[in-house]
Amino acid sequence: MAEDMIVKELDDVVVRFSGDSGDGMQLAGNMFSNISATEGNDISTFPDYPADIRAPQGTLTGVSGFQVHIGSGKVYTPGDKCDVLVAMNPAALKTQYKFCNPQSVIIIDTDSFTKRDLEKAQFVLENPFSELGIKNEVVEAAITTMCKESLKDSGLDNKTIMRTKNMFALGLVCWLFHRDIHVGEKILREKFAKKPEIAEANVKVLYDGYHFGENTHASVSISYTVPSKEQKKKGLYMDINGNKATAYGLIAAAEKAGLELYLGSYPITPATDILHELAKHKSLGVKTVQCEDEIAGCASAVGAAFAGALAVTTTSGPGICLKSEAMNLAVITELPLVIVDVQRGGPSTGLPTKSEQTDLLQVLYGRNGESPMPVIAASSPTDCFDAAFMACKIALEHMTPVVLLTDAYIANGSAAWHLPDLNEYPSICPPYVKPEMAGTWTPFQRDPKTGVRYWAIPGTEGFMHRIGGLEKSNETGAISTDPENHHRMVQLRAEKVARIADSLPDLQVEGDLDADLLIVGFGGTYGHLHSAMDTLRKQGKKAALAHFRFINPLPRNTEAVLRRYPKIVVAEQNMGQLAGYLRMKIEGIHLYQFNQVKGQPFVVQELVDAFTKILEE
């Protein structure tokens, strides 16, 4: 036990909770991020869990992790390495130690490090720290024993008592970083409001973990504090993940447009939580239908769009493959539809719980025929709200299906979100038919300025019509196989999407306007690329970042921006899809590439090393 505890102030810290899938590491990590956000810290989280429903206890494949980065100022990523690792068993230690830095503190449950536990984790020696060459400071706590002792008179069975171990570990971490333990108590009482005996047990163990650290100093000589130094915008904040933010953005757009929101979906990891969240909001006029398969989910949404709803369908990469026929029905009927693609690792079933950016070319071109479709990519958990809102606005105002790309990393990761004022968001004005058009209107009559066809809601007197998957006459709306008409309709649909660029904001460049290297990316890699740019600039190098939200159509100034810099590197979690697309759109441009397809977020230091090498060429 340390005689004199030193309290060290840090600008930021990274904590990684790890254990069996049933050890509650996701809950512990989420609670720690919520507690920290309440104290004014900025946060970025990364849940990292296996695809197994429940791997055998104590095995290497069953380890679930949750990493949270808290900072006194802005944090962009969950961090490359952790400062504290909670390893609830030997398997967690073995698989997660690679995320530690040399100064990391490791917290273990000594009760879970028996000979049998070591064998399950495929250790050869009885000392796992020696076998792994670990020289870090280790906090050894008999967590299982202390939980049993704490709740021996609670009347709970042993299995339930064992489920509280995560709260002991959380309490110990809260002590180590001087977190307000009362916030954790409040979260638990709200979470288990319908099970008060479970709430009391978890609260008691949470405080026991905190007091264990307080009374023993947990065998460490230093505890830490991460004060909030950055003045945040006044207002209400919440810890939100990308899927929930997407759901809220869809609801907000429906409210702004004065429409009911319809979701036709089929469950698929990692997009299902959007369906779950929207299903909670029937009071806001939200209708959710869990269909029998992917194409049915999308086709039902196309029907809802025809009926006058804000129609949405949600999925991941494999579901996009299956929905493509129905997505194309929305293209040819020119109906507003939002398709949310929460990208995951592929091909095929691939890595269902991991993150990639490998669906870009699929959503741009993965349909039969000439079928242009706007594509938007969200850049962070909180940005999912704005990106979803903008996807709805484009779909409704331009009468087109729109793809919103997110990915598992930002969909499951969370950040502190300032609750927005919808009065500050732009209006959404669909191009409805006008009464004076009655009698002369045809289904593909268009606004001459935008090329957008007018929307006639079924039941509107004087506007009875049919649309469908067969090509139609531009003039009458009747089925047509005329070659010239088909060519004209293909052109009109393409021109309508291209004109959307007129209403898009310019591509923004962050960093040095006279940079020697422009970093280019899209989607959920924003935080890592921004951090890499910041590091390069601190090293005295001139670097800038251009991150695409709007991919089809590209912002009007895209070519001008890219031709301004002597060296450009496109960094993406695929084998070069955005780079290839930009080369196709901008003739003669030279691009360096940084590509990784690991199912894991970028490591900032690897980006810095690669970008530095390009600068030195």
UniProtKB/TrEMBL annotation:
A molecular-function term among this protein's GO annotations: oxidoreductase activity, acting on the aldehyde or oxo group of donors
Biological processes, Gene Ontology terms: response to oxidative stress
Gene3D superfamilies: 3.40.50.920, 3.40.50.970, Pyruvate-ferredoxin oxidoreductase, PFOR, domain III (3.40.920.10)
Pfam families: PFOR_II (PF17147), POR (PF01558), POR_N (PF01855)
Listed CDD domains: TPP_PYR_PFOR_IOR-alpha_like (cd07034)
Keywords: Oxidoreductase
Superkingdom of source: Bacteria
Keyword Oxidoreductase (UniProt): yes
Domain Pyruvate:ferredoxin oxidoreductase core: 515-586
Residue span(s) of domain Pyruvate flavodoxin/ferredoxin oxidoreductase pyrimidine binding: 264-436
Ranges where the Pyruvate/ketoisovalerate oxidoreductase catalytic domain occurs: 22-210
UniProt cross-references to NCBIfam families, sorted A to Z: OAFO_sf
Name used for this protein in its record: 2-oxoacid:acceptor oxidoreductase, alpha subunit
